[in-house]
Amino acid sequence: MRLLARLHRIDRRWLYVATLVLMLVPFILPLTLPAGHVARTTRAAFELIDSCPPDKVVIIDSSWDAGSQAENRAQLEAVVAHLCRRRIKFVVTSLGVTALGPDFARDIIRPLAERAGYEYGRDWVQLGFVQGVAGALGPLIDRFCRDLWGLYPRDVHNTPVEELPLMQAVRRGADAHAFCCFTYAPAYEWISFANAQYGLRLVFGCMTIMCPAYYPYIDSGQLAGMLVGNVGAAEYEALNGVAGRGTRLGVPAAFGNCAIIIAAVLGNIGLWAERRGRRAAA
Amino acid sequence: MTDPPVIWLAAFVTVVVFSYALKDNYVYRLVQHATLGATVGVTVVVTWKQVLLPRWWAPIWAAWQGTVVDPLTGQPDHRGLLWLLALLPGLLWYFQLSKRWFWLSTLITGLFVGTAAGLAFKNQILLIMPQLAASIKPLNPFVRPDPALTYGPAWPEPGTPAAWAAALNNALFLAALLATLFYFFFSVRTDHRVLQAPRRFGRLAIMVCLGAMFGSTVMTRMAYLLDRLMFLSHDWWEGQVVPLLRFFPGG
User: Fold this and answer.
1) Residue A282, min C-alpha distance to chain B (Å)
2) Terminus of chain A with fewer CB atoms < 10 Å: N or C?
């Protein structure tokens, strides 16, 4: 019993080391895990984007930087890989969250688009960053849906949008087949303004920590789909049939989660043993 | 493609930040302050280059130079100079620094608060109303509900085990919803024995929700760690260290 009670008093640094070592194993040994269950939210997102007709575009809002690249990067990669495979045209924006968004998005999207033979201006366009106030993005989103050309007179290369062939089909954000927002915590105004007012179908790609806040909107149909962290990215890649960053990160994440679960169970056993020992002593 | 010195610097900073998990140290604090300084610097530069320069200063400068031409009259268009007026409300914020002229700053803060309140009101109405409608869920497994009145996935064939499972799921949802609302009902005494059970169930539902949130928090922290491990193993070790080791004899 005394041995078990010691489990409750393990120095936390040993737990860090154990977790780290476990997570490093898949980086050293080429381990893979089978693609299992695909969440309803991911499948809905995939099917919505997959059903894009040839005369429509998908708009991607890539509003993440180093702060949330741990999960948003894999999500963006997965969706752009799908768009390129299906030859779906897309427009990339970065609305109101981080001015570094366009740079991070370009580094991911450009190689994928070039590999797929996409031509800039005809098959895809990057419009860049527009300054907004966190918590009050409503007017910006309203204008995005109503007058995309007015919100973005020029693209990231300073080319007037009216000179870009792809933009002839997208004068309003609401014209898009679907809108995907990849950021730490997508603004609720996308739901209340873009979806409720303009009927734009939304897919959110958020950090795992934020996903419980958005599940109610999936059930009510206000959100069409959602990619939950790296798990969502891995599921999306499984549906697309192309293993990418999400799949690669899935194995060490599973090892790390196992380490946390084992530590929580051992800690609780230790706590129970300690209390029992104290009661016996009393 | 990131430059090699940047990768080495990023690897060094990553390892130093990890060292804090073992013990607070001087190098970690140095890196922390440098990161804060760099973040502020980058924000200032990026805000100027991506926001103020193209959207504020460029129209002013073009109007001043007379390079913008009115398409109707063919004359130089100087209306871009009106952007200078944006300085007036912007400067009002700085009166917060003066005790005597503080009241001037309340003009701009009042404008912002009023706008934000109006937007928040509209936002909440459009967010919550569909939620209320979606809370009314079908409970009868023998009847197919009107698809126009229901949300979420399609209702299964009536009478099948899937329909029973869906009805049970909806019943659980409704019970959790009502019990949670009841848990926060402070207007009447709820210590009666009959009312204790729904209160306990409400508390249980809240705890399950908090547990899910805590689990997702752990997964996010894990993702942050993994991102850095991926960078160290792929970009730094495989991309920088391994090629360097090949230069050594026997490498």
Assistant:
1) 32
2) C
